[in-house]
């Protein structure tokens, strides 16, 4: 599966758990770490954890693909799923606003998503 295809599938998995304010950036020209960054918001620690867990389980069950690393699952304020070619950041909205990854990656092209809310 191509990286763009995979990250677009992650969008659907995030929407399945009512993730909102989804933004997808292509950072391959600006970063050697990954090609795509997906930012997703959740309304509570439980929802942030549910979104991240759903993405992880769906990739495992459907594609036998596990993330290279997972950070922040215990607290559920900001969870990072690193799949190598793409990374998914799932935040509670105040944490997302504080760290402002959109601003950090403002030079990266944003990929238009058909839906950004469930």
From TrEMBL:
A matching Pfam family: RsfS
Single GO MF annotation: ribosomal large subunit binding
GO cellular component, one term: cytoplasm
Subcellular localization(s) per the UniProt record: Cytoplasm
Keywords carried by this UniProt record: Cytoplasm, Repressor, Translation regulation
BP GO annotations: cytosolic ribosome assembly; negative regulation of ribosome biogenesis; negative regulation of translation
Keyword ATP-binding set for record: no
Function: Functions as a ribosomal silencing factor. Interacts with ribosomal protein uL14 (rplN), blocking formation of intersubunit bridge B8. Prevents association of the 30S and 50S ribosomal subunits and the formation of functional ribosomes, thus repressing translation.
HAMAP family: Iojap_RsfS (MF_01477)
Family from the record: Belongs to the Iojap/RsfS family.
Subunit structure: Interacts with ribosomal protein uL14 (rplN).
Name assigned to this protein: Ribosomal silencing factor RsfS
UniProt organism field: Malonomonas rubra DSM 5091
Gene: rsfS
């Amino acid at each position: 599966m191509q990286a763009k295809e995979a990250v677009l599938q992650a969008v659907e998995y995030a929407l399945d758990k009512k993730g909102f304010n989804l933004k997808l950036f292509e950072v391959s020209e600006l970063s050697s770490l990954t090609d795509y960054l997906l930012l997703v918001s959740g309304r509570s620690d439980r929802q942030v954890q549910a979104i991240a867990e759903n993405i992880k389980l769906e990739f495992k069950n459907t594609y036998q693909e596990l993330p290279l690393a997972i950070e922040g699952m215990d607290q559920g304020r900001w969870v990072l799923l690193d799949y190598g070619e793409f990374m998914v950041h799932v935040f509670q909205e105040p944490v997302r606003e504080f760290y402002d990854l959109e601003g950090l990656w403002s030079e990266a092209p944003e990929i238009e998503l058909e839906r950004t809310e469930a």
